[in-house]
Design brief:
Distance between the termini: 76 Å
Helix content: 10-25%
Shape: elongated
Low-confidence stretches: 1-9, 37-43
Mean pLDDT: 85
Structural class: alpha+beta
């Protein structure tokens, strides 16, 4: 009798799923140990430089045009190569000063980009703000999309009062809240897993 397709005689049906689970477990264990061993090092966290940032007004609304400069250090690069996804979150806030009360928060928005690597296919993937992921053959090409993202619609028209001047606060960095739990605990205590910008502020007069 011929064996059923996809089933090897003598091999339990759950063998493949079990193997994948085991590989994932040891991969996370390896990275957790790597983090634990590197924790004694105390130095400044890596910085994301915001090299360009301005607001554009259009028919759809208000868009952020921004560019960032950063590199992944050894630990972050190693994590990606072992299949751990990294997330980068951009936060923007537009406020209008009021002498009689607290500042008015006109716009508060967040956008998260995901960087991942398929170890078997040797391909990198990036999705921005939940959009369809794009495929890249090199890490540098994948990071380019995160460093130079497309213009981001942060608010519809009508969200700002034309002629009024707003304070814009922008920051961008790796979001450790999205890391797998076994890695997350140590990552929050390890400066090698901190990659973020300082707050960038500028003025924008609504059009």
């Amino acid at each position: 009798m011929r064996p059923r397709s996809g089933f090897t005689p003598g091999m339990p049906p759950f063998f493949t799923d079990y193997t994948r689970t085991l590989v994932t477990f040891f991969r996370l264990l390896f990275l957790t140990l790597l983090l634990a061993c590197s924790m004694p090092r105390a130095h400044a966290a890596d910085v994301v430089d915001i090299t360009r940032a301005y607001i554009e007004s259009g028919e759809e609304g208000y868009k952020l045009a921004a560019s960032y400069a950063f590199d992944l250090n050894h630990d972050l690069d190693d994590a990606v190569q072992h299949g751990v996804p990294l997330y980068f979150t951009t936060e923007i806030e537009l406020t209008r000063p009021r002498w009689y009360w607290f500042d008015e928060k006109a716009i508060v928005a967040r956008q998260t980009s995901k960087l991942s690597y398929n170890v078997l296919l040797r391909q990198y993937y990036v999705s921005v703000g939940g959009s369809v992921q794009q495929t890249f053959s090199t890490l540098d090409d994948a990071l380019f999309l995160i460093r130079r993202p497309s213009r981001w619609l942060v608010a519809a028209r009508g969200a700002l009062k034309v002629g009024q001047t707003y304070n814009v606060t922008l920051r961008m960095g790796m979001d450790r809240d999205y890391l797998p739990k076994p890695i997350q605990v140590n990552a929050f205590n390890n400066s090698d897993w901190r990659l973020s910008s300082n707050k960038k502020t500028f003025l924008y007069t609504a059009e």
